[in-house]
Amino acid sequence: MRPCALPRQCKSIWYVKRVSFATEFDALPLPQLVQRSRTATRARVRESLERASRDLNDFAHLISPAAGEFLEEIARRSHALTVQRFGRVIRLFAPLYLSNECINVCQYCGFSRNNPILRVTLTLDEVRQETLALKGQGFRNLLLVAGEHPKFVSTSYLRECVQLVHQEVPSVSLEVGPLSVDEYRPLVQAGAEGLVVYQETYDRRVYAEMHLAGPKRDFQWRLTTPERAYAAGFRRLGIGALYGLADWRYEALAVAAHASYLLRHCWKAFLTISLPRLRPCAGEFQPRTTMTDRELVQLVCAFRLMFPDVGLVLSTRESPRLRDGLIPLGITLISAGSHTEPGGYTGAGRGHVHKTVRGRIMDAGSSEWAEPVPEDSSGATEQFAIADPRPVAEVVRRIMALGYEPVWKDWDAALCGPTTSAPNHVPLAQANKRTDPAVEPAPCGSTDR
Ligand code: SF4
Question: Which residue, of 197, 343, 371, 380, has the fewest CB within 10 Å?
Answer without folding.
Answer: 371
